[in-house]
Amino acid sequence: MAYRELVRRWHEAVRAADRGHWDAALDTFGGIAEPPARICFNVGCVQLLAGRPEAALRAFNKTIEKDNSLAVGYFQRGFVHLQLEMYEEALSDYHMAFSHLRENPFIDYKQLGLRHILYAWEVLYSTAAVQCHLQQWQEARVTLEKAVVWRPERRTAILELALERVQDHLFLEPMLVPLRELFRPRKKEVEQLDSKDFLGKPKVISSIIPNDEYIGFEPLRPQKQGFYEPSADALRDAESGYHRVLSRYRPEEPPGPEVAVGSLVFVLGRAADGWATAIHDGQKLHIPSSLLEPASSMDKWVPPRCGEASAGADRPAVLRLRCECSLVLRAGEAPALPALRALLRDRLAQQAQRGTLSYRLLDGTELGTVLGQEDLGKVWQQLTDGRLTLCCQDSDSHSGRPVLYRMLAQHSYLAQGPGDLEFSKGDVLDILSEVNEDWLEGRCNGKTGIFPKCFATQTSCDAAFL
Asked: 3-state secondary structure string, the chain?
């Protein structure tokens, strides 16, 4: 058996004995192949604690066989022989224990793992106790007088009392090593049983997230299923947290990182100008707020029901519909914004009934039209990262749509879906409708689509109506 395994079993058995679990301790000691003398000594002590002197005698016999110079082994076996009324054998053991002291007043066994000091006078005292049982009263008196010579200070009283008992022909109780004092493995050896992490855990010294408590290597990335949730103190305002990017964003400044559609960014705060400060891939950047949606409140989840959908996928898919709407207004009648929104809601309800659904094919060259169940199966093949975009175009839409006002592109915008309007910085955009507070529908270079409102600014041109 490897020494490491021996130490582990040895330590477990001693701990079991300390808790009073004698059988558990004996079973663990019994699992040690070729146990050394100290282990056999421990087995003998535990057997005595369990009230089995015969088994204890067999264990101490093995102790002496493995180390015939172990004085404390003879001393403890002499006590067992005396308990079994084997007086001649007990007397021989005590004589052997005293001879192995080699005329030393004591032996301290602490270095071997036993918290006990075996004194020469104790061995002589136990020898006298055996002689009393053998009716050798004179020899017992001589032995005790010899013990007085070896006695340490403050031990005179017990020996004087023993001499009085022997003179009155009364028996003496032999001494022994306290049964709960066992040989124990070295503390350093026990500590080495557990593997140590010498490198320790990394600690964030400086983080762009205030009061960042994460101790990993990338505290700014999602750290569990879903996304990383910092402590409440790390949030600057109610809008801080992880957001998903709705469309690809490429900053005008070359050092800025490009953010792909569907990416997760951690928003630190939003400014009044419509821009947000966020973290992406460990870099700080400014991104239009209109391109972000909270990761915890995304579009309605629509689970795929078609057999063509990704097989075995447990996660739902996000279905996003981008609509093109035609709304004709009379010349000179510019409705207020609430009235205009009401008209749009009515128009979109009609469009949902008779609009044409389309999607971008796998090769990305053109749009495919959804006319039946077979086409719908092809749609689900476009599912990417759990998201799918469809374009709903009114079949009655025409090119002669009214221009509400014009805007000047302040940043270039790359189309991220079939319904997006792509333009370059400096282009003039004809605004056809306001999708919501953050998105507009416009026309540029003969193409119509939607784009983030913060990418352009309104010009001084007047609004035009049909």
From this structure: CCHHHHHHHHHHHHHHHHCCCHHHHHHHHHCCCCCCHHHHHHHHHHHHHCCCHHHHHHHHHHHHHHCCCCHHHHHHHHHHHHHCCCHHHHHHHHHHHHHCCCCCCEEECHHHCCCCEEEHHHHHHHHHHHHHHCCCHHHHHHHHHHHHHHCCCCCHHHHHHHHHHHHCCCCCCCCCCCCCCCCCCCHHHHHCCCCCCCCCCCCCCCCCCCCCCCCCCCCCCCCCCCCCCCCHHHCCCCCCEEEEECCCECCCCCCCCCECCCCEEEEEEECCCCEEEEEECCEEEEEEHHHEEECCCCCCEECCCCCCCCCCCCCCEEEEEEEECCCCCCCCCCCCHHHHHHHHHHHHHHHHHHCEEEEECCCCCCEEECCCHHHHHHHHCCCECCEEEEEEECCCCCCCCCCCEEEEECCCECCCCCCECCECCCCEEEEEEECCCCEEEEEECCEEEEEEHHHEEECCCCCCCC
